[in-house]
Specification:
- The complex is a heterodimer of chains A (224) and B (153).
- In chain A, 46% of the residues lie in helices and 13% in strands.
- Chain A is an alpha+beta fold and 224 residues long.
- In chain A, the strands form two sheets. Chain A has a four-stranded antiparallel beta sheet, covered by helices on one side. In chain A, strands 1-2 form a two-stranded antiparallel sheet.
- In chain A, a hairpin with an 8-residue loop joins β5 and β6.
- Chain A is globular.
- In chain B, β3 and β4 form a beta hairpin.
- Chain B is an alpha+beta fold.
- Chain B has a single domain, classed as 2-Layer Sandwich (Alpha-Beta Plaits), CATH 3.30.70.
- The chains are: A alpha+beta (224), B alpha+beta (153).
- At the A-B interface, α5 and α9 of A face α2 and α3 of B.
Chain lengths: 224, 153
Amino acid sequence: MTSPDDLRDLDALASLTDPVRRRAYQAIADAAGPAGRDDVAEALGIGRTLAAFHLDKLVAAGLLAVSYARRSGKTGPGAGRPAKLYQVAAAEHAVSVPPRAYRGAAELLAEALEEAGAEETLNRVAQRHGRRTPACADATALLTGQGYGPVAAGPDRIELRNCPFHRLAEQFPPVICGMNLAMISGLLDGAGLDGEWTARMDAAPGRCCVTLSKNLRESPQEAV
Amino acid sequence: MTDFHLAQMNTARLRAPLEDPSMIEFAEGLSLMNDLADRSPGFVWRLAGENGDGTIVAPTDPSRIYTLSVWESPEDLRAYVYQSGHLDYLRRRRDWFVPNGPRAALVLWWLPAGKVPTLRQGISRLGRLDGNGPTPDAFTFRQLFPAPELSQL
């Protein structure tokens, strides 16, 4: 709690104590892609200047990252100035008092599990835990509650913008991504959504390795 | 442009010969994944092997296979291995491969751009990784080392 790293993390998180700023952060985190101050001003019902003020504070704290793009799709002269867009920064921040090292333990466990080749057991456990989720009629609500940041990509597909296991998944992709797929499958099953959606491994840069696709409607089958 | 490329060697022990019915999905996936690798950004070279499918059988153990390839950067290799359709094959590796235990299954090392690594070099790098842990000569994604810098003249 006294190392410079810890204090930097604490500073970053402390910038979220302002309620408006916290909502501004949440608005960016909930957006389907990089969003501008106008989007946040509208979502929060505040002025654009105030929205920009809080967003830039969040950038200074390292919680948001900035990019510039023309939003109209126009290019060349007359297309206007590129808009300043915000998105959640890649860096992670955690503060624990007293000090705890759960990630270190998780890394050891993942390495041991990989060495033992026990992925099947892990997947079974993950699926079982997923199935314990209460019934839920909405896949987006279900996965939002688990921190996946789901976003519709067309009517028949859901992508997950956040990987709750990100650092660990980067270090042990087959183990952690396999576990993740098993857990999401279990969640869908437990929620009663497995008839509507199927989770599958569909890895791509910058998002969770799992996507959901809507099941093709089956013709009703008569019991024989 | 960087003056060094990243070589990777990967090894696995098959649960059954490639012709076995239990291995069909793996065997069929080989050409799909090789095609994907060949058109992935940053792909430089891979050892095609006698079968042309990219799997090299160890001379002393027909169940031990290797792949050997060269990439422009660790990011390029990572994007192919872990952020593409390839990940689903990795996820299913226990269906087809015996766990490698504490022995390294993947090793990375830098080599001058334009050079082609040999199977023998790759096996030797795997041995170094097993013996010494990650070093600039033999490392893994979990602990990358930067490319060597050519001495400034």
